[in-house]
UniProtKB/TrEMBL annotation, chains A, B:
Pfam families: TetR_C_6, TetR_N. Residues 13-72 form the HTH tetR-type domain. Residues 35-54 bind DNA. The keyword Transcription applies. It comes from Ktedonobacter racemifer DSM 44963. This is Transcriptional regulator, TetR family. The keyword Membrane does not apply. It comes from the Bacteria. Keywords: DNA-binding, Repressor, Transcription, Transcription regulation.
């Protein structure tokens, strides 16, 4: 009995997913030097079959990055509108970023991006996507900082400077997580330390600085 | 009149210094792809003359790194023994690191190291020197943190964790300074923000976290 068109479609989708999954681990292991031959071998399919699904390695890579970096504008919007004080929402945002660095899966995804950026092998379309998403993260952070300064939960000062210092620190933490995931996981739970970057001075300290 | 041996010595030293200075700007511009030919051209001397002072590019590079990363053990020791509270000495240490990133000269030196590390072109001897110096910095920081926790100036918690988070943040700041020195300089003066990573909670906040 011949297969129905629906069954064929399911098989194609499963095949495609399998190639992407294999590619993810090959890229994580070999970086941008991975070839489509490596990916086909990992997926235990022929090279010819791999080419029926993707035109080249770059197409596979682009698809992976799109899966990894979902369009999160809705997520940021939800965060801004969440109940709780601005300081609490800021804590949620930073904790989720720091926490994600300690988990295996988002970390591998990050490793993938890191490889691509370092190898200057990032397709333009993907580079734009990432840039947009990063800008959205910074804008969300900035908005919560400004609101948090109004409630007194966030230290006063130029919000752009606070955003810049925090994002540099998050960058440093990410690089640490990529370099030594085991060590990072031992330390990671404490996003509270990172959040102190936004913390207003104690009254005692304020007095001693003014004196 | 023939030149005296002293005069010859002076000329040789000036020549050597000129080669090193030229090499510094060539390495800063071209990274580890710079050749000894580039360096000779920059110094406006012949290639043959350059080779009379240095066996190869690596020898020039090693010398530059040694100049850049002085043996600072005495400096760290002095800092630990400085008058003032541990919190104040910690502030001096962190401010001097953050401040240095905003200055052109130490930044160029850092750029040099960064190039070499990325290109895996760091001679073993220099790699060890850098590793030692970095460990000494971390040990100094750790000691001041422990002392600062005893005086209540530094937030309680695992000192190794505090050292790790601070050094990740400093790493992120350094990368930012290397990527965009102009933007960094606009923001740099505020080491106070970075120092908040060590700041104890306000009494108010402490109370709300315990509730």
């Amino acid at each position: 009995m011949p297969r129905t068109p629906e069954a064929n479609q399911r098989i194609r989708e499963a095949q495609r997913a399998k190639i992407l999954e294999s590619a993810r681990s090959v890229f994580a292991r070999k970086g941008m030097e991975a070839t489509i031959t490596d990916i086909a071998a990992e997926a235990q399919i022929s090279l010819g079959l791999a080419y029926r699904y993707f035109a080249d390695k770059e197409a596979i890579f682009s698809e992976l990055v799109k899966q990894t970096v979902p369009d999160d504008s809705a997520g940021f919007q939800k965060l801004v509108e969440m109940p709780g004080t601005p300081g609490e929402r800021l804590a949620t945002l930073i904790s989720s970023i720091v926490g994600a660095r300690g988990q295996r899966e988002p970390l591998e995804a990050h490793q993938l991006l890191h490889h691509a950026l370092n190898a200057n092998a990032m397709p333009e379309e993907i580079r734009e996507l990432l840039g947009k998403r990063y800008q959205m993260l910074l804008a969300t952070m900035r908005q919560l900082i400004v609101e948090g300064q109004a409630t007194g939960e966030v230290a006063p000062g130029d919000p752009d400077q606070l955003v810049a210092v925090m994002s540099a620190c998050l960058d440093g933490l990410t690089r640490w997580a990529l370099r030594d995931p085991e060590q990072f996981r031992t330390y990671v739970p404490d996003a509270q330390i990172v959040l102190r970057l936004f913390q207003p001075l104690t009254d005692e300290k304020k007095a001693s600085e003014q004196s």
